Amino acid sequence: MTAGACWRQLSGSSGHLVPSVNFEAVRGTAGFADLAAAAGGLEQFELIETIPRKFARGCDYLRVSEPDRYLGPWLAELTEMAAPERPVRAVLGYCAGAALARALADAATKYGLGEPILLLFDPLRVNGTTLSREFAEALDTVRPQLTPGEIEGARNSAARWEERCADAGGRALAPMAEALDEVYQGLVTAACGRLRVAPALERQLCDRFASYFAYLVASSRCEETAAGPVAEVVWSNTREAVPHAGDRAVRFDVPEPQLLADAAVAEFVSQTLRR
Fold it and tell me: Between the CA of residue 236 and those of 16, 141, 258, what are the distances in Å?
């Protein structure tokens, strides 16, 4: 079986499975498709990538970010693709996808899909600061249409929640996500009204925000619960290493946005998968 509703195929078609976890490649930042293109040794593996889970604005963040529920569709389809002669060879995770990848690798081992190597790239531990920063970046799309008062109010709301969630775990981030979702919806509605854009665009912006924040909250919750295998962690030269017990780290002299497109990184991945 080839990748379907939950996974997209990046390389190979019949080799050992290598699932990768990322929300989506941001403009100017390399993704796993770039890694597949740069790594000639990956043709013998079937590199697949998660298709982001989709949620609507105003979703129940606590419910949808529960690790088993969030990973469930990915794992179910991965189980259908895997076979004794086609095991899960490795699981890859980038940035906030690292904790989700660790949980997925743990589940793959638990359900007999293989004993995967875990490869993480610039892993990010999601917290309140992460949500606050991503909220501000999401507002950049409509910032020119907002008043100074609206921008200041949004900034203050995010700052209050960030302080409240400074030392909180994943479950505690769900109320922050819900609060910022509500603020974002209001500002996008105001901006779209001033621009007289189609309601479909407003809905698209709000739903993408909800989907991304559910991904971030799920990542934080997986960070708390998934033991997972020891990982090989690949760091760029622009990210501060955050050690995780037992993991082995290697750093490459390449900036974060181009980490997954770097030839030396691709060769390291190929060698690691073939060993």
Answer: 27, 28, 9
- Contact assessment for residue 10 and residue 36, using Cβ atoms and an 8 Å cutoff: yes
Q: Using CB atoms within 10 A of its CB, is residue 269 exposed (0-12), middle (13-18) or buried (19+)?
A: buried
Strand ranges, E, within 161-244: 231-235
pTM: 0.94
**Residue 44 burial (CB count, 10 A):** 14
Q: String of b and e for 199-219 (b: at least 16 CB within 10 Å)?
A: eeebeebbbbbbbbbbbbbbb
169 — phi, psi (to 5°)? -90, -175
The token pair at 11 is 């390389």
Tens of pLDDT, residue by residue over 238-263, are 888 777 767 899 999 999 999 999 99
Determine contact, residues 183/157, Cβ cutoff 8 Å.
yes
Give the span between the Cα atoms of 242 and 153, in whole angstroms.
33
The angle subtended at Cα 165 by Cα 230 and Cα 103, nearest 5°, is 25
Computed from CA positions of residues 115, 216, 22, 123, in that sequence, does the dihedral angle turn out positive or negative?
negative
Amino acid 41: pLDDT:
65
Domains for the chain: give ranges and CATH numbers.
7-125+222-274 (3.40.50.1820), 128-221 (no CATH)
Continuous segment of H or E residues that includes residue 52: none
Structure token digits, residue 106 = 């743990």
Please report how the helices 128-139 and 148-164 are oriented relative to each other, as an axis angle in degrees rounded to 10.
170
